[in-house]
TrEMBL record:
Gene Ontology MF annotations: ATP binding; ATP-dependent peptidase activity; metalloendopeptidase activity
UniProt entry keywords in alphabetical sequence: Hydrolase, Metalloprotease, Protease
CC annotations in GO: chloroplast
Gene3D superfamilies on file: Peptidase M41 (1.20.58.760)
Domain Peptidase M41: 1-65
Biological-process GO terms, alphabetical: protein import into chloroplast stroma; proteolysis
Name the UniProt record assigns to this protein: ATP-dependent zinc metalloprotease FTSH 4, mitochondrial
Recorded superkingdom: Eukaryota
Pfam families registered for this protein in UniProt: Peptidase_M41 (PF01434)
Organism in which the protein naturally occurs: Capsicum baccatum (Peruvian pepper)
Keyword Electron transport: no
Length: 75
């Protein structure tokens, strides 16, 4: 699972290292969106955050159906 996250983050890191922070293109933005989505799935569906225990959380509505405390733990 983590390897997919590393790959999604790789393009931005490479651009920053090769081109510098001021020259990063918009290409990695989709990768960052995918990494965010994947990480949220890891937390909400696979229980990969200690504070949330081994429970699944429906985040399909952007967390509107859960308490603000739970939503803040997920973000």
């Amino acid at each position: 699972m983590f390897s997919q996250l590393y790959v999604a983050m790789g393009e931005r890191v490479v651009e920053e290292l090769i081109l510098g922070k001021s020259e990063i293109t918009s290409g990695p933005s989709d990768d960052l969106k995918q990494a965010t989505k994947f990480t949220r799935t890891m937390v909400t569906n696979f229980g990969m955050k200690k504070e949330l225990d081994l429970l699944t959380h429906n985040y399909d509505d952007d967390g509107k159906s859960m308490s603000i405390d739970t939503r803040l733990l997920i973000v």
